[in-house]
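Record format v2
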Amino acid sequence: GAGVSQSPSNKVTEKGKDVELRCDPISGHTALYWYRQSLGQGLEFLIYFQGNSAPDKSGLPSDRFSAERTGGSVSTLTIQRTQQEDSAVYLCASSLEVGYTFGSGTRLTVV
Amino acid sequence: GENVEQHPSTLSVQEGDSAVIKCTYSDSASNYFPWYKQELGKGPQLIIDIRSNVGEKKDQRIAVTLNKTAKHFSLHITETQPEDSAVYFCAASTGGGNTPLVFGKGTRLSVIA
Protein backbone atom coordinates (compact mmCIF):
# COMPACT_ATOMS: atom_id res chain seq x y z
CA GLY A 1 0.00 0.00 0.00
CA ALA A 2 0.90 3.65 -0.14
CA GLY A 3 1.39 3.98 3.58
CA VAL A 4 1.30 2.13 6.89
CA SER A 5 -2.24 1.17 7.76
CA GLN A 6 -3.40 0.52 11.32
CA SER A 7 -6.72 -0.79 12.53
CA PRO A 8 -8.84 -0.08 14.35
CA SER A 9 -8.23 3.65 14.60
CA ASN A 10 -10.01 3.74 17.95
CA LYS A 11 -10.72 0.97 20.44
CA VAL A 12 -12.56 1.18 23.75
CA THR A 13 -12.36 -1.92 25.90
CA GLU A 14 -13.26 -2.95 29.39
CA LYS A 15 -10.56 -3.59 31.95
CA GLY A 16 -9.54 -7.23 31.90
CA LYS A 17 -10.43 -7.87 28.26
CA ASP A 18 -7.91 -8.81 25.57
CA VAL A 19 -7.36 -6.60 22.52
CA GLU A 20 -5.64 -7.06 19.16
CA LEU A 21 -4.21 -4.18 17.18
CA ARG A 22 -3.28 -4.63 13.53
CA CYS A 23 -0.54 -3.07 11.43
CA ASP A 24 -0.20 -3.35 7.65
CA PRO A 25 3.28 -2.05 6.71
CA ILE A 26 4.43 -0.63 3.40
CA SER A 27 4.96 -3.46 0.95
CA GLY A 28 8.60 -4.51 0.80
CA HIS A 29 9.61 -2.89 4.07
CA THR A 30 11.63 -5.43 6.03
CA ALA A 31 11.57 -3.70 9.42
CA LEU A 32 8.45 -3.17 11.52
CA TYR A 33 8.23 -1.37 14.86
CA TRP A 34 5.58 -0.88 17.53
CA TYR A 35 5.66 2.16 19.81
CA ARG A 36 3.33 3.41 22.52
CA GLN A 37 2.52 7.09 22.98
CA SER A 38 0.89 8.10 26.24
CA LEU A 39 -0.78 11.51 26.65
CA GLY A 40 1.85 14.24 26.53
CA GLN A 41 4.68 11.75 26.41
CA GLY A 42 7.22 10.70 23.86
CA LEU A 43 7.22 7.46 21.96
CA GLU A 44 8.04 4.36 23.98
CA PHE A 45 9.59 1.47 22.03
CA LEU A 46 7.76 -1.85 22.39
CA ILE A 47 8.99 -4.40 19.83
CA TYR A 48 10.94 -4.59 16.56
CA PHE A 49 10.83 -7.11 13.71
CA GLN A 50 13.58 -7.28 11.09
CA GLY A 51 13.14 -9.74 8.24
CA ASN A 52 13.26 -13.33 9.44
CA SER A 53 15.30 -12.55 12.55
CA ALA A 54 13.97 -13.12 16.05
CA PRO A 55 12.09 -10.00 17.19
CA ASP A 56 13.59 -7.57 19.67
CA LYS A 57 11.05 -7.68 22.50
CA SER A 58 13.10 -5.65 24.96
CA GLY A 59 10.56 -2.82 25.17
CA LEU A 60 7.48 -4.85 26.05
CA PRO A 61 6.34 -3.59 29.47
CA SER A 62 4.94 -6.89 30.76
CA ASP A 63 4.14 -10.44 29.70
CA ARG A 64 0.58 -9.29 28.94
CA PHE A 65 1.98 -7.76 25.74
CA SER A 66 2.92 -9.85 22.72
CA ALA A 67 3.25 -9.34 18.98
CA GLU A 68 3.48 -11.43 15.84
CA ARG A 69 4.45 -10.67 12.29
CA THR A 70 3.12 -13.16 9.78
CA GLY A 71 4.81 -13.77 6.45
CA GLY A 72 7.08 -10.80 6.96
CA SER A 73 4.17 -8.45 6.44
CA VAL A 74 1.13 -7.84 8.67
CA SER A 75 1.73 -7.55 12.40
CA THR A 76 -0.64 -7.93 15.34
CA LEU A 77 0.00 -6.50 18.80
CA THR A 78 -1.98 -8.30 21.49
CA ILE A 79 -2.60 -6.99 24.98
CA GLN A 80 -4.10 -9.49 27.40
CA ARG A 81 -6.09 -8.61 30.52
CA THR A 82 -5.98 -4.90 29.72
CA GLN A 83 -5.39 -2.39 32.52
CA GLN A 84 -6.24 1.32 32.62
CA GLU A 85 -2.55 2.20 32.35
CA ASP A 86 -2.53 0.53 28.93
CA SER A 87 -4.62 3.43 27.59
CA ALA A 88 -2.48 5.14 24.94
CA VAL A 89 -1.97 5.54 21.22
CA TYR A 90 -0.20 2.54 19.74
CA LEU A 91 1.88 3.44 16.70
CA CYS A 92 3.30 1.11 14.12
CA ALA A 93 6.12 2.04 11.74
CA SER A 94 7.94 0.28 8.93
CA SER A 95 11.21 0.94 7.15
CA LEU A 96 13.40 -0.49 4.42
CA GLU A 97 16.74 1.09 5.22
CA VAL A 98 16.52 4.32 7.15
CA GLY A 99 13.63 6.56 8.05
CA TYR A 100 10.49 5.17 9.61
CA THR A 101 7.07 5.64 8.05
CA PHE A 102 4.46 5.69 10.82
CA GLY A 103 0.82 4.78 10.65
CA SER A 104 -1.81 7.02 12.22
CA GLY A 105 -2.03 4.79 15.27
CA THR A 106 -4.71 3.04 17.28
CA ARG A 107 -6.09 4.99 20.23
CA LEU A 108 -6.80 2.45 22.97
CA THR A 109 -9.00 3.42 25.90
CA VAL A 110 -9.43 0.98 28.76
CA VAL A 111 -12.47 1.74 30.93
CA GLY B 1 20.74 2.35 27.40
CA GLU B 2 20.28 5.49 25.37
CA ASN B 3 18.49 8.47 26.90
CA VAL B 4 17.34 11.46 24.84
CA GLU B 5 16.40 14.74 26.51
CA GLN B 6 14.50 17.40 24.54
CA HIS B 7 13.95 21.09 25.31
CA PRO B 8 11.81 23.11 25.45
CA SER B 9 8.60 21.16 25.94
CA THR B 10 6.58 24.07 24.50
CA LEU B 11 7.63 26.90 22.22
CA SER B 12 5.64 29.84 20.86
CA VAL B 13 7.02 32.06 18.11
CA GLN B 14 5.67 34.81 15.92
CA GLU B 15 5.15 33.97 12.28
CA GLY B 16 8.33 34.70 10.37
CA ASP B 17 10.62 34.22 13.37
CA SER B 18 12.98 31.29 13.85
CA ALA B 19 12.43 28.32 16.16
CA VAL B 20 15.15 26.19 17.74
CA ILE B 21 14.64 22.87 19.51
CA LYS B 22 17.51 21.15 21.28
CA CYS B 23 18.20 17.54 22.21
CA THR B 24 20.96 15.77 24.10
CA TYR B 25 21.76 12.07 24.02
CA SER B 26 23.72 9.84 26.36
CA ASP B 27 25.12 7.01 24.24
CA SER B 28 28.26 8.03 22.38
CA ALA B 29 27.69 5.09 20.00
CA SER B 30 24.54 6.75 18.59
CA ASN B 31 25.07 7.56 14.93
CA TYR B 32 21.69 8.48 13.47
CA PHE B 33 19.53 11.43 14.55
CA PRO B 34 16.13 12.01 12.90
CA TRP B 35 13.49 14.61 13.60
CA TYR B 36 9.78 13.92 13.32
CA LYS B 37 6.77 16.24 13.06
CA GLN B 38 3.45 15.07 14.45
CA GLU B 39 0.21 16.83 13.65
CA LEU B 40 -2.95 16.25 15.61
CA GLY B 41 -4.46 12.82 15.03
CA LYS B 42 -1.63 11.67 12.79
CA GLY B 43 1.48 9.58 13.15
CA PRO B 44 4.91 11.27 13.29
CA GLN B 45 6.41 12.17 9.92
CA LEU B 46 10.15 12.26 9.23
CA ILE B 47 11.21 15.80 8.27
CA ILE B 48 15.00 15.65 8.36
CA ASP B 49 17.77 13.41 9.65
CA ILE B 50 21.52 13.55 10.15
CA ARG B 51 24.24 10.97 10.56
CA SER B 52 27.19 11.23 12.89
CA ASN B 53 29.70 11.84 10.11
CA VAL B 54 28.02 15.15 9.24
CA GLY B 55 27.87 18.33 11.34
CA GLU B 56 25.00 20.10 9.63
CA LYS B 57 22.26 19.40 7.13
CA LYS B 58 19.77 21.79 5.57
CA ASP B 59 16.55 21.33 3.64
CA GLN B 60 14.85 24.60 2.65
CA ARG B 61 13.68 26.26 5.91
CA ILE B 62 14.76 23.36 8.11
CA ALA B 63 18.28 22.62 9.33
CA VAL B 64 19.79 20.24 11.85
CA THR B 65 23.15 20.59 13.57
CA LEU B 66 25.06 17.90 15.44
CA ASN B 67 27.81 18.29 18.04
CA LYS B 68 29.19 14.81 18.70
CA THR B 69 31.63 15.99 21.35
CA ALA B 70 28.87 17.56 23.43
CA LYS B 71 26.34 14.89 22.41
CA HIS B 72 23.68 17.31 21.38
CA PHE B 73 21.79 18.13 18.22
CA SER B 74 19.34 20.86 17.31
CA LEU B 75 16.52 21.57 14.87
CA HIS B 76 16.30 25.04 13.37
CA ILE B 77 13.22 26.25 11.53
CA THR B 78 13.50 29.63 9.83
CA GLU B 79 10.73 31.92 8.56
CA THR B 80 8.14 29.97 10.53
CA GLN B 81 4.63 29.64 9.17
CA PRO B 82 1.35 28.70 10.92
CA GLU B 83 1.48 25.26 9.25
CA ASP B 84 4.72 24.57 11.13
CA SER B 85 2.63 24.35 14.33
CA ALA B 86 2.88 20.73 15.53
CA VAL B 87 4.73 18.53 18.01
CA TYR B 88 8.34 17.84 17.06
CA PHE B 89 10.29 14.81 18.27
CA CYS B 90 14.01 14.19 18.13
CA ALA B 91 15.40 10.66 18.25
CA ALA B 92 18.66 8.74 18.26
CA SER B 93 19.82 5.26 17.39
CA THR B 94 23.06 3.30 17.30
CA GLY B 95 22.25 1.20 14.28
CA GLY B 96 22.39 3.80 11.53
CA GLY B 97 18.64 4.17 11.42
CA ASN B 98 17.56 0.58 10.90
CA THR B 99 17.27 -0.24 14.59
CA PRO B 100 14.87 1.01 17.26
CA LEU B 101 14.92 4.75 17.83
CA VAL B 102 14.91 6.35 21.27
CA PHE B 103 12.72 9.45 21.20
CA GLY B 104 12.69 12.67 23.18
CA LYS B 105 9.44 13.68 24.86
CA GLY B 106 8.56 16.22 22.20
CA THR B 107 8.22 19.97 21.75
CA ARG B 108 4.87 21.57 21.02
CA LEU B 109 5.56 24.43 18.62
CA SER B 110 2.93 27.12 18.14
CA VAL B 111 3.43 29.68 15.38
CA ILE B 112 1.32 32.76 16.02
CA ALA B 113 0.07 34.60 12.96
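Residues 42 and 65 of chain A are 19 Å apart (CA to CA).
The beta strands of chain A are 5-7, 10-13, 19-24, 31-37, 43-50, 65-69, 75-79, 88-95, 101-102, 106-110.
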